[in-house]
Amino acid sequence: MAPPQGPRAPLEFGGPLGAAALLLLLPATMFHLLLAARSGPARLLGPPASLPGLEALWSPRALLLWLAWLGLQAALYLLPARKVAEGQELKDKSRLRYPINGFQALVLTALLVGLGVSAGLPLGALPEMLLPLAFVATLTAFIFSLFLYMKAQVAPVSALAPGGNSGNPIYDFFLGRELNPRICFFDFKYFCELRPGLIGWVLINLALLVKEAELRGSPSLAMWLVNGFQLLYVGDALWHEEAVLTTMDITHDGFGFMLAFGDIAWVPFTYSLQAQFLLRHPQPLGLPMASAICLINAIGYYIFRGANSQKNTFRKNPSDPRVAGLETISTATGRKLLVSGWWGMVRHPNYLGDLIMALAWSLPCGVSHLLPYFYLLYFTALLVHREARDERQCLQKYGLAWQEYCRRVPYRIMPYIY
Ligand SMILES: NC(=O)C1=CN([C@@H]2O[C@H](COP(=O)(O)OP(=O)(O)OC[C@H]3O[C@@H](n4cnc5c(N)ncnc54)[C@H](OP(=O)(O)O)[C@@H]3O)[C@@H](O)[C@H]2O)C=CC1
Ligand SMILES: CC(C)=CCC[C@@H](C)[C@H]1CC=C2C3=C(CC[C@@]21C)[C@@]1(C)CC[C@H](O)C(C)(C)[C@@H]1CC3
């Protein structure tokens, strides 16, 4: 079976060596952040105050809880959906079908957690279990990625991703070989991208808020803001679930360790870092500052949602009255590119909005520590790298039309800066 990517195709993420380094570095960074957030000095750089023994990492209770969580989210995924959407056209000209019931899963999870808490479920005990939970999530990601790697051995060539099939096992294990691994209607990548990790993230945030209320009588304003902003972000992602079908993760990247670990471990345990930090390092926050931070988040959200919705509306139906008046460039593929509206301001206005929101999530944590700004730093690096990958793919797809777009819209993410 010939690999769809020739041996001389450019490898991403520094090739096999880079992939091997990331296999170790990503989990190590996640545990470093978890330990730093609970330590007094809360240092982002430098070694953690103390290293945990295996007994702090391994807990059968955490394993059971984690498996129950995955099982619950899988069951909610399988419930009847209000809509079934079609994905992008695949190499063999077929389209996969996806249930649109993510927001329903969020609401049902909230109801179940509410019922559990009123029946005596100790939600405030969850923050103490973050370390063993992150450990089992990491183990699950490794085992699951191994399963995905094996499953791809028997997949038809047309089901393989454009990257992730170099022939080097470490590189392919990391990037992922199969584009849309499924068993019947259950799509593993689509499920993982939006359910256990994203909903788990807001549940961890909520548990940290509850724990803070137990410790100090009531949650702090900073904790409310972080919870509110991130709940808006997750609620928005699930409300606009269909839009994820056009992201590069679904249409281009294979499903391997990078996305499996990213979705189920990295997102819930590192994206909740600000709330973890606030639990152990309370920060005073006055109303004027809180209002300014809310304004920053609102501006970021406005740009993020406006840009994403404009592109999705345009891709679904270019004659939709909301986008029909926008200027476009025709490409040889028959698809057009927007050159006015949000997409005429910079080439990735949605990244700009996302980054502004990331800043608003860190500001409630004050400026005494660098740790709560980790997300902003990591996210800037991720989006700059992602933007470069997307540019390469668009240049390949659209050729001269893409060059014309770059000439007319010269800035990538930040007007006049980058
Ligand atoms: N919180 C997090 O950790 C992360 C969040 N994100 C967010 O996810 C969202 C999706 O990001 P991502 O999938 O990277 O990329 P985009 O949603 O920006 O999609 C890029 C694609 O859009 C199309 N496109 C580009 N320019 C134009 C144009 N001018 N007119 C019309 N179509 C255009 C091209 O695809 P085509 O032409 O084929 O349609 C291109 O490949 C973003 O808001 C991002 O911020 C992303 C990563 C991580
Ligand atoms: C460092 C590391 C482990 C990298 C893996 C990256 C993943 C964590 C991210 C890749 C793309 C993502 C997206 C979202 C979450 C993070 C990951 C999985 C996303 C679901 C967040 C909510 C947004 O509204 C979104 C749906 C647009 C977004 C899609 C991409």
Automatic annotation (TrEMBL):
Membrane topology, record value: Multi-pass membrane protein
Enzyme Commission (EC) number: 1.3.1.70
Pathway: Steroid biosynthesis; cholesterol biosynthesis
A single GO BP: cholesterol biosynthetic process
Catalysed reaction equations from the record: 4,4-dimethyl-5alpha-cholesta-8,24-dien-3beta-ol + NADP(+) = 4,4-dimethyl-5alpha-cholesta-8,14,24-trien-3beta-ol + NADPH + H(+); 5alpha-cholest-8,14-dien-3beta-ol + NADPH + H(+) = 5alpha-cholest-8-en-3beta-ol + NADP(+); 4,4-dimethyl-8,14-cholestadien-3beta-ol + NADPH + H(+) = 4,4-dimethyl-5alpha-cholest-8-en-3beta-ol + NADP(+)
Gene3D superfamilies given in the database record: 1.20.120.1630
Sorted UniProt keywords: Cholesterol biosynthesis, Cholesterol metabolism, Endoplasmic reticulum, Lipid biosynthesis, Lipid metabolism, Membrane, Oxidoreductase, Steroid biosynthesis, Steroid metabolism, Sterol biosynthesis, Sterol metabolism, Transmembrane, Transmembrane helix
Subcellular location, record wording: Endomembrane system; Endoplasmic reticulum membrane; Microsome membrane
InterPro entries hit by this protein: ERG24_DHCR-like, Sterol_reductase_CS
Domain of life: Eukaryota
Pfam families: ERG4_ERG24
GO CC, one annotated term: receptor complex
Transmembrane segments: 60-79, 100-123, 129-149, 254-273, 285-304, 355-384
Cleaved signal peptide residues: none
Primary localisation category: membrane
Family: Belongs to the ERG4/ERG24 family.
Function as written in the Swiss-Prot or TrEMBL entry: Catalyzes the reduction of the C14-unsaturated bond of lanosterol, as part of the metabolic pathway leading to cholesterol biosynthesis.
The protein's name in its UniProt record: Delta(14)-sterol reductase TM7SF2
Species in which this protein is naturally found: Rhinopithecus bieti (Black snub-nosed monkey)
Gene that specifies this protein: TM7SF2
